[in-house]
């Protein structure tokens, strides 16, 4: 029996676990990365590997210890070295004496044959066409609901009267999604999630709005970014991330399959500054910053793992972009050395800076695209 | 007359000031933190205790990396990050300031102000070369009191070029130059230039440095560093009289501006209370938060570090 495990990325483990189980695999669930996970990863990773590499390597060691025999991860193309990470991690782990199979899911547009072969390895039960449709619908809904709950928590947290309620509601929402058995239950859960956040007492204020751009792993995994969104929310700031699970899956798997470039608008916005792709999400960081600016946000925070080349390229362009659109910019570099207190100092100062600017009534943004559209 | 207390607990120094209603500094205390912030804050309060009758404290502000801890110990009304505090203090001293250079024990910062508003700032990220601790350590290694370090640098006629990219390399380069027989003052002057170069390349990169430039923090006392900045920037660099306690002054000014009605200040007797801190790792979920308890005379008065508020909310029950 395959005992499948995978990296821990935000709440993505919930739909992925369900998918793997539906395909007839045993799942060894990774746990949320802790300091020990990071220490494990740092111990065996090359010194200048980036933070996501170290955390994921640590996670792999933990799940292999728990008995996993198959590791599933995504690959990638382009200059960002993350595309080669699974190969390197496999080598490191095998040299440590672990026995397992590494299955790398490469982007469909270039490696469709490999991808299908790899997915076949993960399907260990007989499924009809109808089953596939049912599973796909369920997983997709789960992804969407998890994103929805998270977006609601970001929206409500700066407004909550009693501190901590939004975080609690979010935790409950995730549990509800995790426990739902089929699509019907998920639809009920959707209503419940909305209720959970509706019930919270909210202040009637117009919070400062900060967009968060950067590398995907540190964006999606709170243990890697020191829970920056909660920190911002607690300071009374509406923080919106440029990337969410469902959107990312959609653009990078489905659109890619039909050879359509994902996130066209983002890339188009970045074009004047960033003509070539540089791998990773460097270009998306610039494009998303411009979109945030046009929607009337007050500032942009860029999260990048230390030594991440795509984000370094973006970091050199972003100050110019933010100056042009007259919004604040704060780059945050994350590494295993990063202390939370230092980050808090920078974030607090950044928020002070933005509120002082706001008070001076800088006119900016496109009134038609209010900052809180969507939800 | 109303007075305001400002406390800045940094990695190297703990500073306490008292300002009056006009923002004038009445007391300024500079202490070494020595890794024991609680002790340092209490020591500072003890030094002020005999003047308790002179001052009527109406508000207290804390800043620095130990601001939360200090706030609990003294009972603060305003808790602010040091970047804002330094900007406020610099602006009070020099109203038309456009650039603040602040070099402390562990961090170096640049703050850009335009029309009286902070528009940009940066802090050193991954490298600590050029901060107070490093200069301290080098002075110690060379057997020169840190106070004389700067004036010695000014004596130099032929500064030696030192690699300042990283503290470790800077030190080995300095040792190398010593072994070659260069004069001490030339090496020290070269070090100051290297640190300024490093600061402008790393911290000040991409920032428009316009006059007036205010240089504050403990390192501003170093005449060699001031001269090196003036040389590199080709403009006058102003060092305020109370440059070493500007963070504390900023915290006090913020407390004054906050318009506190009833201060939480425990009074100078807080120096006699018995404070302890201990911590544990919560195993309630996979977050594994490190929760810290701050106790006053054995009673828990504050708790932080947990993400889910499970422990934080318990403080109400004490």
TrEMBL record, chain A:
Keywords annotated in UniProt: Coiled coil
Q: Does the keyword Coiled coil apply?
A: yes
**Coiled-coil region list:** 170-206
Q: Which InterPro entries match?
A: Dehydratase_Activator_Redct (IPR051805), FldB/FldC_alpha/beta (IPR010327)
Domain of life, source organism:
Bacteria
Q: Which PANTHER family match?
A: BIFUNCTIONAL PROTEIN [INCLUDES 2-HYDROXYACYL-COA DEHYDRATASE (N-TER) AND ITS ACTIVATOR DOMAIN (C_TERM), BIFUNCTIONAL PROTEIN [INCLUDES 2-HYDROXYACYL-COA DEHYDRATASE (N-TER) AND ITS ACTIVATOR DOMAIN (C_TERM)-RELATED
Q: What is this protein called?
A: DUF2229 domain-containing protein
What is the scientific name of the source organism?
Thermovenabulum gondwanense
From TrEMBL, chain B:
Its EC number is 3.-.-.-
Domain ATPase BadF/BadG/BcrA/BcrD type residues, every copy: 5-255
Task: Return the broad EC class.
Answer: hydrolase
- Keyword line: Hydrolase, Iron, Iron-sulfur, Metal-binding
* GO MF, one example: metal ion binding
Q: Which domain of life is it from?
A: Bacteria
Q: Which cofactor names does the annotation list?
A: [4Fe-4S] cluster
The record's annotation in PANTHER family points to: ACTIVATOR OF 2-HYDROXYACYL-COA-HYDRATASE (PTHR32329:SF7), BIFUNCTIONAL PROTEIN [INCLUDES 2-HYDROXYACYL-COA DEHYDRATASE (N-TER) AND ITS ACTIVATOR DOMAIN (C_TERM)-RELATED (PTHR32329)
Record's protein name: R-phenyllactate dehydratase activator
Native species: Thermovenabulum gondwanense
Q: What is the lineage of its organism?
A: Bacteria, Bacillati, Bacillota, Clostridia, Thermosediminibacterales
């Amino acid at each position: 029996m395959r005992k499948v495990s995978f990296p821990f990325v935000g709440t993505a483990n919930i739909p992925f676990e369900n998918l793997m189980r539906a395909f007839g695999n045993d799942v060894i669930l990774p746990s949320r990365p802790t300091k020990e996970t990071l220490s494990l990863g740092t111990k065996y990773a090359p010194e200048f590997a980036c933070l996501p590499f170290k955390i994921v390597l640590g996670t792999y060691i933990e799940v292999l210890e728990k008995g996993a025999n198959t590791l599933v991860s995504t690959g990638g193309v382009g200059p960002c070295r993350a595309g080669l990470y699974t190969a390197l991690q496999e080598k490191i782990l095998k040299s440590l004496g672990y026995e397992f199979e590494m299955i790398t899911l490469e982007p469909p547009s270039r490696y469709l044959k490999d991808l299908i072969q790899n997915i076949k390895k993960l399907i260990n039960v007989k499924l009809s066409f109808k089953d596939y449709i049912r599973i796909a619908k369920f997983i997709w809904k789960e992804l969407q609901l998890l994103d929805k709950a998270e977006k609601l928590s970001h929206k409500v947290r700066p407004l909550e009267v009693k501190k901590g309620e939004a975080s609690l509601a979010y935790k409950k929402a995730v549990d509800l999604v995790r426990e739902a058995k089929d699509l019907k239950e998920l639809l009920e859960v959707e209503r419940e999630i909305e209720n959970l956040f509706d019930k919270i007492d909210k202040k009637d204020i117009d919070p400062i709005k900060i967009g968060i751009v950067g590398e995907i792993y540190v964006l999606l995994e709170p243990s890697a970014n020191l829970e920056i969104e909660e920190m911002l929310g607690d300071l009374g700031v509406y923080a919106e991330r440029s990337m969410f699970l469902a959107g990312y899956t959609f653009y990078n798997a489905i659109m890619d399959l039909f050879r359509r470039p994902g996130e066209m608008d983002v890339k188009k916005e970045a074009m004047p500054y960033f003509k070539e792709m540089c791998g990773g999400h460097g270009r998306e960081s610039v494009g998303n910053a411009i979109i945030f600016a046009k929607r009337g946000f007050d500032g942009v925070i860029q999260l990048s793992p230390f030594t991440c080349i795509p984000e370094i390229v973006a970091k050199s362009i972003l100050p110019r972009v933010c100056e042009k659109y007259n919004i604040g910019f704060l780059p945050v570099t994350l590494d295993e050395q990063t202390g939370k207190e230092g980050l808090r100092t920078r974030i607090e100062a950044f928020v002070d800076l933005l509120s002082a600017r706001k008070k001076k009534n800088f006119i900016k943004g496109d009134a038609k695209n209010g900052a809180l559209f969507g939800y | 007359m109303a007075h305001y207390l400002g406390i800045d607990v940094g990695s190297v120094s703990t500073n306490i000031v008292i300002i009056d209603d006009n923002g004038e500094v009445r007391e300024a205390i500079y202490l070494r933190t020595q890794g024991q912030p609680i002790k340092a804050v209490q020591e500072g309060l003890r030094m002020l205790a005999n003047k308790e009758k002179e001052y009527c404290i109406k508000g207290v502000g804390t800043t620095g990396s130990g601001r939360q801890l200090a706030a609990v110990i003294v009972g603060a009304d305003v808790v602010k990050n040091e970047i804002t505090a330094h900007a406020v203090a610099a602006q009070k001293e020099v109203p038309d300031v456009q650039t603040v250079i602040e070099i402390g024990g562990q961090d170096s910062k640049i703050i850009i102000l335009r029309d009286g508003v902070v528009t940009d700032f940066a802090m050193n990220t991954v490298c600590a070369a050029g901060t107070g601790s490093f200069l301290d350590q080098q002075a110690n290694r060379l057997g020169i009191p840190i106070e004389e370090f700067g004036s010695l640098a000014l004596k130099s006629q032929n500064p030696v070029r030192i690699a300042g990219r990283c503290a470790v390399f800077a030190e080995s380069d300095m040792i190398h130059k010593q072994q070659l027989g260069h004069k001490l003052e030339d090496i020290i002057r070269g070090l100051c230039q290297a640190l300024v170069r490093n600061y402008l390349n790393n911290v000040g990169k991409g920032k428009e440095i316009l006059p007036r430039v205010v240089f504050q923090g403990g390192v501003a006392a170093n005449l060699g560093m001031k001269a090196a900045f003036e040389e590199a920037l080709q403009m006058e660099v102003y060092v305020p009289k109370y440059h070493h306690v500007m963070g504390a002054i900023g915290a006090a000014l913020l407390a004054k501006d906050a318009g506190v009605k009833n201060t939480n200040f425990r009074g100078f007797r807080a120096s006699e209370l018995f404070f302890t801190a201990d911590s544990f790792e919560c195993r309630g979920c996979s977050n594994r938060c490190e929760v810290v308890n701050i106790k006053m005379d054995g009673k828990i008065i504050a708790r932080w570090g947990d993400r889910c508020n499970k422990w934080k909310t318990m403080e109400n029950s004490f």
